[in-house]
Amino acid sequence: MNAGESRGHTLRESSVHTGEPAGLTEPKDSGQVSARHASVIPQDVDIIVTIDGPAGTGKSTVAQALAERLGLDLLDTGAMYRAAAAIAIDRGLMDDIESDDPNTRDPAVARFVEVVNEADVHFDWPTDPPAIMAWSKALGKFEPINDRIRTPDVTRAVSIIAGIVPLRHHMVRKQRIIAYQHPRLVTEGRDQGSVVFPDALVKFFLDADLKVRAERRADQLRAAGYSAEADELTEQLAKRDHADRNRDEGPLICPDDAITVDTSDLTFEQVVDRLGQDVLDRVGVA
Ligand code: DC
């Protein structure tokens, strides 16, 4: 059990969004709560809401806003795989992990999973949204790695890392422990409804056209100060989709009992409204 996984995320009121396409902008907390947004899940109700889908569908920002609106905690499982990828790169393990020679690759993968375990990747729940932390050997303490995990080298490496079966088992275990400690949770990723929380009360699968997703990613990268070409990103996203959908363990699939939402032509506000209403209907909150 990690030091950072104690309860501590407070009940927050909703943020209000106006007309931006899903995924284009980070949620902003305006401090206003419209009557339509005032419903939260009663404190005595435990509930897991899963949101899965490919990159660029607006999953992360939608999940964050939905959690705020409903007064639930938020788990970004992509951040956990990104943290593992950052560790692989920063410890110089990528070449051996990617080796075609099993005599090099297999011990490197085993060592890598050990190193990730030792780094004790976890979330600092009192921060909003929770910061992702990992042990830094150099600093001799846990450090936040939010910025590191969003860099292009990590984004390139993460599909390979996310395909490593023992790493996925490690992450799935961690995610279930987190849900045990935070039983009122919106969790987003690729396998949350299918593998990690098959009994979740509400499951969503967000999708969108590849081109729309690439344009959103380009805008996000430019906003973060990186140069980005939509054509190049379309190709990268298609490759990541292929890797995510075709790996043996925890592939990206739409669970049979998931509610599918195509966000291509919806605004951010419309997506959050739709998901929020579906959850409230399922819980029976007016
Ligand atoms: O959602 P994201 O772009 O931050 O995810 C980063 C990578 O991690 C992406 O290639 C898919 C992978 N991932 C996964 O395999 N399983 C999850 N539950 C979450 C993310």
Describe the fold and architecture:
- The chain is α/β, with parallel strands linked by helices and 286 residues long.
- The protein has one domain (48-270): Rossmann fold, CATH 3.40.50.300.
- 45% of the residues lie in helices and 14% in strands.
- It has helices at 59-70, 77-90, 94-97, 102-119, 152-162, 165-181, 192-196, 210-223, 230-246, 268-283; strands spanning 47-52, 73-76, 122-124, 131-136, 141-144, 184-189, 202-207, 259-262.
- The strands form 2 sheets. A 5-stranded parallel beta sheet has the order 2-6-1-7-8, sandwiched between helices. The chain has a 3-stranded antiparallel beta sheet with strand order 3-4-5, with helices on one face.
- A hairpin with a 6-residue loop joins β3 and β4.
- The chain is globular.
- It binds 2'-deoxycytidine-5'-monophosphate.
- 2'-deoxycytidine-5'-monophosphate binds next to α2, α5 and α9.
